[in-house]
Amino acid sequence: MRAALLIQRWYRQYVARLEMRRRCTWNIFQSIEYAGEQDQIKLYNFFGYLMDHFTPASSERNLISHIFRENNICRNVDWERYFCYKSIEVPKLYSGPHLSFPITCSNAAELVEAFKNKQQLHSRYVLQLLGETWRLLRILPNISQISTCHSKEITICGDLHGHLEDLLLVFYKNGLPSSEKPYVFNGDFVDRGKDSLEILLILFSFLLVYPNDVHLNRGNHEDHIVNLRYGFTKEVLGKYRLHGKKILKLLQKIFSWLPLATVIDNKVLVLHGGISDTTDLHLISRRKRQNRSGMTDSDLEDDDPTAKPVDSSRRRVHSLTHSSSTGTRHEVQRRSLQGLNNRVTCSVEEELKERRRQAGLSQSYGDLRNSLANSDSDPDSGELLESYGDEWKQIVDMLWSDPMPQDGCVPNEVRGGGCYWGPDVTEEVLRRHNLTLLIRSHECKQEGYEFCHNRRVLTIFSASNYYEVGSNRGAYIRMGPDLVPHFIQYQANRATRALTLRQSVGRTERSALRALREKLFAHKSDLISSFQEYDPENTGLISLGHWACAMEAVLRLGLPWRVLRTQLVGDTLDGMLDYHLWFRELSITEPNTEVSLLETMYKHHSNLETIFRIIDTDNSGLISFEEFRQTWKLLSSHLQTEISDEAISDLAVSIDFNKDGSIDINEFMEAFRLVGGDLLQNEGDPH
User: Fold this and answer.
1) Phi, psi of 160 (to 5 degrees)
2) Could you tell me where the Polar residues compositional bias lies (predicted)?
3) Confidence grade of residue 469 (pLDDT, cut at 50, 70, 90)
C-alpha cells in the first residue's frame, strides 16, 4: 500500500510538471502569434502615415499607394470581362476534377475527393466557381438566420487556417454538408496552412449547392492585407501563376461580402471574434452593404444586365479593407449613408483614410470621433458620420475581439484590434437581444474548445496541431433543437496519436523554445542594452531577477520568465548570470555597437516580406535593385533607424544569385530563414 501511494504521488507530480510545461509552451506560442498581429497593424499604420504625410510625388508613397486604390476594373459589366473564364481552355491532358454549372452535390463531393488525392482544380473552374459564389453572396443578409428541427443537428466549425486535413477529417466523422446536415463555418478559412484555397473552393461549392444549409461567417483573416503577411497571397500565386492575380482580386470581392454572423433559432449567436459594450445586432442587420465602387445593389442592377435581383432589405456591410470609394472630405460628409448613388472618383489620400478608418488600423475610435467633430461639414453630416463610425467599430469588434475574465470592455492592445470584453458585457448583450449563448472562434484552444463567462461564451477552434504537431486538438460542435452543444475532438495528424504525453509535450516545447530563441536573436542588441542598465560597472553579470525584468521589458510577450529560466538559462554563478556567455550558449553572436543589417532583417522579416509583396505589383515574384533599395528605405523609416545605401546595395548584389539585376522574393526570404536557422541550429535539447 505504501509503495502504491508513493507511485501515485510521484505520478501526480510528474503529470503536474508536464502540465506546467505545456502551459508555458502554450503561452510562448500565443504571445508570439499576437505580437505578429500587432506588428502587422503597426506596419499598416505606417503605410497610412506615409499616405497622409508624404508628398504625392514621393517614391515611398507611390510604392504602397496601390494597395489602397480602388480596382476600377472590378465593377459591374467590366467585372464579367476581366474575370471571364470562357477564354481559358481546359487541355485534354488535364487529369484533375471537372465541374459543371449549376454545380451539383456530386461535383462538390468529387472536388473533396480530388483535393484529398492532391489534385489541383483548373483555373477556368476556379474562376467560374468564385464568380458564382460572389453572385450568391451579394443577396445574402449581413446576419444569417437558421433553425434546427427534430430531424437534424447543426454542425459548427471554428478556424481552419488552411488545414485541409482537419476539414476532411470533420467530413469523414460527421458527413458532407447537405440539407439534412447543415454546417456553420465560423471564419478564418485561410492563412498559415498550405491548403487555404482548397478549403475555400470546397466550402464555396457546398454553399452553391446548399445555400440554405451551409453558412460562412467572415473572420479577421478574410482580408487581403492580412493575407499578404500570413501566406494566402503567396499560396494562390504559387499554385496559379498565370491566373493567380485574377483569382486574388475576385477573392477580395468575395471576402468583403461574406456574412458577419449567424443566429440559430433566435437564441445562439455565432460570430468569429466577439462583441463589445456597443454591439447592436439590429444595426448590423439593417446596414446596407455597398460594393467597392460606392454603389448599392440597386445601382448594380441598373448597370449589370446579368445581375440577379436583390431584395432591398438584404444589403451588405462594407468590406473592412475594400469599402466604397469616397470623394473629398466635404463630399463624404454630404452623402447619405442610405444610398451612395453618385460615382465619384476619389484621390488615393481620401480613400486611404476612409479604408483605414473602417479597418480600425489608423486611428482610435476616439480619434475618429474627434476628427469628425472638428471637421467643417453640413449640419446633418456629423450625426450621419458618427453613426457610420459606430457601425465600423462594431464590425471590427465582431472580427477581432476576445473575452476576458474581468468585467468591462477595454481596447485589445495585445492583438491591436477589437476589444477585450467581460462577463457583464456578455450578459447585457445576450439579454438585450434575447440570446442564450455566444459561440465564437478566433483563439486556439488546447482542447479545441473552451467555455467562459459562466458558460455563456463558447470558443471553438477546428485546426488541430495549429502551432506544432501535438500542440492542440481540433474540435467541432453538433447542436440540436435543445441548443445544447456537443463536442467532437480530434487530431488530424496520425503521428500525434502515437505519441505519449511526455513525447508530445517535449516536441511542442522544443518548437516553442526554438521560436522564442529566434525572438531573442532578433532583439539581441536591445537585450544587451537592457542588461547593461542593470550592470553599471560592466561586470557582465546580472541577477536572475534583473534578467527576467529585462526580458519582458524588451520582448513584451507577457511570459513567465522566471518559470522559463530553467529552459533558457544554464548554470549561474551564485545566482548571477553571465549574459555574454549566455548569448554564446544560445548560439547568438554578440552584436556590434551599431545595429547590423542582418539583425534588422531577422527581427522584421515578416514586415519585410509584406512590403516586398506589396511592391511586387505584377505578382511576378521579382523586384528590381531600385525597388529593393526603396523597400529597405521604407522599413528603415518605419523603424526609425538608419541603414546606409552602401549596405543595402552590397546585400542586393550578394543575393542576386543569377546576376540578372533582379531579386527573387521567395529565394531571398528562404535564404534569410536559412541564415537564421544556421545561427540557431546548435541550440540543443533542453531536456
Assistant:
1) -110, -30
2) 360-376
3) confident
Residues 6+ apart with CB under 8 A from 400: 220, 273, 274, 360, 412, 415, 417, 418, 419, 442
Of 639, 643, 669, 649, whose CA–CA distance to 42 is shortest?
A: 639
* Alpha carbon 169 to its chain's center: 23
Higher pLDDT, 14 or 154: 154
Determine the pLDDT at residue 335: 26
User: Which residues face 440 on adjacent strands?
Assistant: 459
Residue 288 in this model has a pLDDT that exceeds 80? no
Q: Quick one: cell of 271?
A: 460570430
Q: The cell 542593470 sits on which residue?
A: 534
pLDDT tens per residue, range 396-427: 999 999 999 999 999 988 887 899 999 999 99
The string of DSSP codes covering 174-229 is H---BTTB-EEE-S--SSSSS-HHHHHHHHHHHHHH-TTTEEE---TT-SHHHHHH
The average pLDDT across 32-45 equals 73
Q: Which three cell numbers stand for residue 30?
A: 500565443
**Residue 221 designated active-site:** yes
CA quadruple 103, 104, 108, 110: dihedral positive or negative?
Answer: negative
**DSSP class per residue in 432-485:** HTT-SEEEE-SS--TTSEEEETTTTEEEEB--TTSSSTTS--EEEEEE-TT--E
The predicted-structure confidence for 545-603, as pLDDT tens digits, reads as follows: 999 999 999 988 888 898 888 888 877 778 899 988 888 777 644 444 344 555 566 56
pTM equals: 0.76
Distance between CA atoms of residues 505 and 339, nearest Å = 56
Q: Which of 122, 161, 221, 322 is catalytic?
A: 221
Separation between Cα atoms, residue 663 and residue 670, nearest integer Å: 12
Locate 128 and state its grid cell: 467560374
Residue 250: count other Cβ atoms within 10 Å of its Cβ. 22
Residue with cell 499554385: 239
Q: 524-536 in b/e burial notation, b at 16+ Cβ within 10 A?
A: bbbbbebbeeeee
Helix locations, 54-122, DSSP H: 59-64, 76-82, 105-116
SS3 407: coil
> For residue 96, what are the contacts with CB-CB under 8 A and spacing of at least 6?
114, 119, 120, 121, 122
Interhelix angle 605-615/625-639, nearest 10 degrees: 130
